[in-house]
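Could someone model magnesium ion with this protein?
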Amino acid sequence: MTTTHYEAVPEVASDAQARGRDLVVMKFGGSSVGDTQKIKDVAHRLVAAREAGYRVVGVLSAMGHTTDELIRLAREVSARPNPREYDMLVSTGERISNALCAMAIYDLGHEAVSLTGSQAGIVTDTVHGKAKIAEVRGQRINDALDDEKIVLVAGFQGVSSANEVTTLGRGGSDMTAAALAAALGATVCEIYTDVEGVFTADPRIVPNARKLKALTYEEMLELAASGAKVLQLRSVEFARNHDVRLHVRSTFSQAEGTWIVDEEDPVLEKAIISGVAHTDCEPLFRAREIDAAKLFAQLAGVSVNVDTILQVSSDEIVFSAPLEDRETCEQLLGSLGIEWSMRDDLGKVSLIGAGMKSHPGIAAKTFATLEGIGVESKVISTSPIKIACHVATADVSRSVAALHDAFELETA
Ligand code: ASP
Ligand code: MG
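Reply:
Sure, complex below.
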């Protein structure tokens, strides 16, 4: 198995500017292509960009809950689906939506071509289900763009160095879009979704949450890692490493969304706190009689993204991992012959803001706010721009609301 630890600078197959027109990558999520009418609407939007003079690459997710449905089918057939066949199966959802959209574009009087990840030249490592992009060979896309076509690329997938179909992890169409934007030299990577942008908190929990005009990559990374579902974490990391400006916006309106940019970018508002993210459940594992180096090497070996880590005593370690990695962690810990346990009755509330770096007192106010509503924080972790507290799942919503209120995020 070959593993790519760092998603390398993709080859810039051609200089977009030298080709005379700006290139945009426009990515549409599952809810934006939920039915055939919506796919026709997306076709209109792509054609409008083309008619405005852009070279257009569209990246569509699978329709609605297609990917969930495919995974359900796999699980019905097998408790542990063969990884290669799993990727063969789940990659099909994106072929459907992109091919349908290409047909709709023809009916609007434009030419289009839909490509699988493999046809689009997205080369990955061989880690099925969670592959990393090793290289983008942009020639075929550039040729099609030169032929005046709107190019549609099936998101979430590539071809491995062993010539197998791979997928890029859940939410991986964002990664496809960011990688293509970097490799093809796009002016902007637009992420179209069913919300207006990135908000100061989940509007379902905090009705007066505010849409943010702009965020730094670091803030967006922390938000995505802390439960904000609007962008896949890896795609933000990649965009930062390759200077891709991201614009998260609504499929259903023309309004400006949220820009994700470099710290120096003039669009930033320089707020102290940008938002509160949450997850309802983040499993917490406790392991004994194993040293940290060995444990985390094993977890890395099975591609688990560990979040919080606490060395409780010389022979006891506590760590958290995303819910999707829970089974993998349990299997691994079970195989090590050590004493371990897991609890899944906690969620996590995270306060994030680049201004935290230079403003003392944020932690004090966070703890005072939680204490004030009688919420006990079981585990606390921080970064220079984040304070995260594990709290009981039942307390997550009111903790988010209280922090949003205490830091006056609705008016910032
Ligand atoms: N369809 C894939 C998923 O649901 C990829 C994506 O939508 O980004 O995870
Ligand atoms: Mg998504």
